[in-house]
Amino acid sequence: MSKTEIRIAIDCMGGDIGLPVTIPAACQFAKQNPDTRLLLAGDTAGIEDGLRAQNSLGAGWYEILPASEVVLMGDSIEVALRRKKDSSMRVAAQAVKDGRADACISAGNTGAWMAITRYVLKTLDGIDRPAIATSIPNQKGTATTMLDLGANVDCSAEHLLQFAIMGSALSTAIDHRERPTIGLLNIGEEVIKGNEIVKRAAELLRSSGLNFYGNVEGDDICKGTVDVIVCDGFVGNVVLKSMEGLAKMVATMMRAEFTRNPLSMTAGMLAKPVLNRFRDRVDNRRYNGAALLGLRGIVIKSHGSADSYAFGCALQRAREAVHNGLLAGTTGAIASLRQSLQAAAAESTKIPNEFSDPAL
Which of 71, 251, 278, 336 has its CA 20 to 30 Å from the CA of residue 197? Predict the structure, then answer.
């Protein structure tokens, strides 16, 4: 593999912090991954200042893609898409469209990033809507892939089937699972549970050829019952934000209890190695980097408040997606399923031989 075989375009200006996060993360990532070339989209002077501060100016592992505008976190989709056509977001996405980059990443405005990448790259054949997918740590020590996490509030059963196909391809590429198990998030495991859309989606999944486990409930996410969990974006976003809030609450309560009095502080010092291991195990920064699936290119969304470590993890996910052929895997999975569904439909419309005799 040549050193420039994998190319990732970065929206350096996006996120709550921007350059003070993206540039140090890019420099550290480049040291760890010499086979990857980074295309840094944004203000040229600002990027060069950041590289100079990291003693990385002129290192040869990057290319600057000038962009004169920045999509702010509060910008509407209309502003980002129509009025800021030379934004760092747009330039990074265009690099993938033009074949200059294999993947693009941004920590900026999620709605704007989704709209821009969908407009520039378009969706894959057989996919109506892109979906946001990420990995959630579970008690097995692995991670559960979950989608959609907010891109699509209202979904049909067919959309949920498409999400399952894309989630399966992502799990195979990133987590190296040959036939990931798929679960449909529901209010119960029983077939009769759920609204009509979820029931219909379950029927489609059972006949899809995917490794469909069945309905799963909310607690199955952290149990690691299945490899991939599918739901609409409204439910997925609520679940994700609730889990993030719970994690922060537990951390705050533990700090408060271990600093309550001298005895608690002593106990905290004794328990520090265990607490550090626990913190590392559930550290959501390690799982930063949600994939926008269903587009004609690999697109990664970093959390807006990500620090350099978290943004570096998102860059690593982008590299793994390219290295493991996520786009080709998704395209192939969609094509294979469409063929199987068409064959099944053709088989179901065949007239039995005993009724094909004109004399009958």
Answer: 336
DSSP alpha helix (H) spans, 54-109: 77-78, 88-97
Lowest mean pLDDT among 120-129, 159-168, 284-293: 284-293
Tokens of 267: 């106990």
- R_g over Cα of the chain: 23
Angle, helices 262-282/233-258, rounded to nearest 10 degrees:
150
Range of the domain at 14: 1-127+294-350
118 and 51 share one domain: yes
CA distance 358 to 360: 5
Number of neighbours of residue 281 by Cβ within 10 angstroms: 11
- d(CA 329, CA 141) in angstroms, rounded, equals 25
In angstroms, rounded to a whole number, what is the distance separating the alpha carbons of residues 314 and 311?
5
pLDDT of 16 above 50: yes
What's residue 345's pLDDT?
A: 60
Q: Are residues 184 and 120 in the same domain?
A: no
Give the start-end residues of each E strand in the chain: 6-11, 36-42, 62-66, 103-106, 131-137, 143-147, 181-185, 211-216, 228-230, 290-293, 298-301
Residues 6+ apart with CB under 8 A from 208: 161, 164, 165, 337, 340, 341
Alpha-carbon span 22 to 217, nearest angstrom: 37
The reported pTM is: 0.82
pLDDT reading at 323 higher than 50: yes
**Is residue 356 in some structural domain?**
no
d(CA 119, CA 297): 12
Mean pLDDT of the chain: 87
pLDDT number for residue 289 = 84
pLDDT tens readout for residues 179-212: 899 999 999 989 888 899 999 999 999 988 889 9
The enclosing domain of 167 has a CATH number of 3.40.718.10
- The amino acid occupying position 307 is D
Query: What is the tally of structural domains in the chain?
Result: 2
Q: Residues 42, 156: one domain?
A: no
Is residue 94 domain-shared with residue 208, that is, in the same domain?
no
